[in-house]
UniProtKB/TrEMBL annotation:
Residues 117-210 form the CAAX prenyl protease 2/Lysostaphin resistance protein A-like domain. It comes from Luteimonas terrae. This is Membrane protease YdiL (CAAX protease family). The chain crosses the membrane at residues 46-67, 87-110, 130-159, 171-192, 225-246. Keywords: Hydrolase, Membrane, Protease, Transmembrane, Transmembrane helix. It comes from the Bacteria. One of its GO terms (molecular function) is peptidase activity. GO terms for biological process: proteolysis. The keyword Chloroplast does not apply. The keyword Hydrolase applies.
Length: 266
């Protein structure tokens, strides 16, 4: 959906968007943890999908339907894009990451690997993008009249804060916050510049997490310094390709007042 249905309406729209997001984020995975307990394998993966993520997805779709129109809910969240294009783009641009990880870390495949990929890559990759980029950032930017930077930075601060518990020490926690917050801004920019196609950041998020599962180099989102540098290379490559795509389309979507003020579709 690229029509007036996603043009800025009223800044008051931001209040229900933020309230629903904080409610969902606060109770993230609580029901799953209460029910699944020590479950393993397919039972744990199924419980995570049905109890941990599906309710959030349904609420996000409902919120988008209320703020736009029911038939526009998928488009308002960026789910009307091109998933195969996004997957191919993600595979191409994360290929250097695979090459380096294969050299630096052992390939680790076990009987639980398919479930680990679902629990740590597929479900959170899609779920977090829908919640943080599609719902919070996207609706603030497209409906509430927020500029790109205010909307992206709010989502980035919350996204980085949600990963702080992965750090054991203050320095490590700060590093995790920084890399995940940077990733949040990057994902938001990709989302906008690829014509509000949420599948693009979903593909990058899922694939990066997946390579981290099969080539484990750390038990948190930070990893060693070379792994941080590797992700910065992926970000740089994606920026170059995205700018080339924007040039062919006729120009970047975020420019001028769109960075800090009201964004309008040209």
């Amino acid at each position: 959906m690229r029509s007036a249905h996603t043009s800025p309406r009223s800044r008051w729209v931001a209040l229900p968007i933020i309230a629903v997001f904080l409610w969902l984020d606060h109770f993230h995975l609580d029901l799953f943890r209460a029910v699944a307990g020590d479950w393993t394998g397919a039972a744990r993966t199924g419980a995570l999908a049905l109890l941990g993520y599906l309710p959030h997805w349904l609420v996000a779709l409902g919120m988008a339907a209320v703020l736009t129109r029911p038939r526009d809910a998928l488009a308002a969240l960026g789910l009307d894009g091109r998933p195969m294009r996004a997957l191919l783009l993600g595979l191409l641009l994360t290929a250097p990451m695979v090459a380096v990880l294969a050299f630096k870390a052992p390939l680790t495949l076990t009987a639980d690997t398919p479930h680990a990929l679902a629990r740590h890559a597929l479900l959170p990759g899609f779920g977090e993008e829908l919640l943080y980029r599609g719902l919070l950032f996207g609706l603030l930017f497209r409906l509430a009249g927020w500029g790109f930077l205010p909307a992206a930075l709010m989502a980035a601060l919350l996204f980085g804060g949600a990963h702080l518990t992965q750090g054991g020490q203050a320095v490590e926690a700060a590093g995790i916050f920084a890399i995940t917050a940077l990733g949040a801004v990057w994902f938001a920019w990709l989302y906008v510049e690829w014509d509000f196609d949420l599948w693009v950041p979903v593909a990058f998020h899922v694939l990066i997490n997946a390579w981290w599962v099969v080539f484990p180099v750390a038990d948190n989102a930070l990893g060693p310094l070379w792994a941080v540098g590797l992700r910065l290379v992926i970000i740089a490559l994606s920026i170059g390709v995205t700018l080339a795509f924007a040039k062919r389309r006729g120009g970047r979507r975020v420019r001028g007042r769109g960075w800090i003020g009201v964004w309008r579709h040209d």
